[in-house]
Amino acid sequence: MKTINILSASVALILFANQQADAQIKLGDLFKKVMAKQTTTTSATGTPSTIEIGLGIKEALQIGVSAGADRLSVKDGFLGNLAVKILMPPEAQKVEKTLRGIGLNQLCDNVITSLNRAAEDAATEAKPIFISAIKQMTLTDATNILLGNNDAATAYFKRVTTSKLMQKFSPIVTTSLSKVNATKYYSDLTSQYNRLPLVKPVNTNLTEYVTQKAIDGLFIEVAKEELKIRGNLNSRSTTLLQKVFGYADKKKI
User: Fold this and answer.
1) Helices (H), ranges, the chain
2) 32: number of CA atoms within 13 Å, CB side?
3) What CA–CA distance (Å, rounded) separates 208 from 174?
4) Residue 199 backbone dihedrals phi, psi, to 5 degrees
5) How many beta carbons lie within 10 A of that of residue 15, not counting itself?
6) How far apart are CA 118 and CA 110, in angstroms?
7) Could you report the per-residue pLDDT of 24-43, keeping only the tens digit for each?
8) Cα 242 from chain centre
């Protein structure tokens, strides 16, 4: 009991000292200060403390982004998932229709497969970027996400990771497009089309297109995980998650 009282007092002092600068408090720093002293257990019921909300959101998001990124970074992660599968660029869809109409189905299929393989390669680099964003999350961010809309966490990730994902993914996609012959297949496809009479030549920045589609796919998968943990009680696999998201459920009634 004495140890618990000391821990409680320590938490209170930390929170009081930083009350005015809450928006700048990084959860990772605060967790180290408190959790390094003592590991405590929590009940699945009751009102969670600010620390518990932060810990709960951090745990939930780590589970969610890891699951989402892992699903997409394997073979057929994009290609086999209709929600995120990358199709021909919009300006090339007429090309695809025309070439399939004259029997060049395999060429079109090669392009689509290779675009998705490049995205799957890039997705392997997503998890560290998302985890870094979680570590930089403030207590205010965590509370806003918990009590916000069903896509509040996804919106947070879009806001703080999109630019970094673009920078990280672009060179990977460029390399992957070449490695899986996407550049060659697409060049063959557009060349075949551009030879046809009275057609407008088609040019596409494949790196930019696949990079954006890969990022869009990641956010779709993260959103799925967010909805799952908010709406599915069985997805709240720990006592902490049950307490934190159970509290959020009550606040939204």
Assistant:
1) 2-17, 27-35, 50-72, 93-101, 105-123, 126-135, 139-147, 152-179, 182-194, 206-231, 239-252
2) 5
3) 9
4) -110, 155
5) 17
6) 12
7) 445 555 444 444 343 345 56
8) 22
Nearest to 226 by CA among 121, 132, 130: 130
CA distance 6 to 227: 37
Residue 234 near residue 42, CB atoms below 8 Å: no
Residues 6+ apart with CB under 8 A from 245: 56, 60, 146, 229, 230, 236
Summarize pLDDT for 98-130 with one digit per residue, the tens. 889 999 899 899 999 999 999 999 998 899 999
In sequence order, the β-bridge partners of residue 138 are 26
- State residue 138 phi and psi, 5-degree precision: -95, 170
Amino acid at 47: T
d(CA 153, CA 76): 26
SS3 88: coil
Written as one letter, the residue type at 137 is M
* Cβ-based burial of 57 (10 A; exposed 0-12, middle 13-18, buried ≥19): buried
Partners of 145 in the beta sheet?
none
Q: Where does the pLDDT of residue 4 fall: very low under 50, low under 70, confident under 90, or very high at 90 and above?
A: very low
Token pair listed for 100: 């399939």
7 token code pair: 């821990």
Residue with tokens 């040019």: 203
The answer to whether 211 touches 170, Cβ cutoff 8 Å, is yes
CA distances (Å), origin 199, targets 87, 195, 202: 21, 8, 9
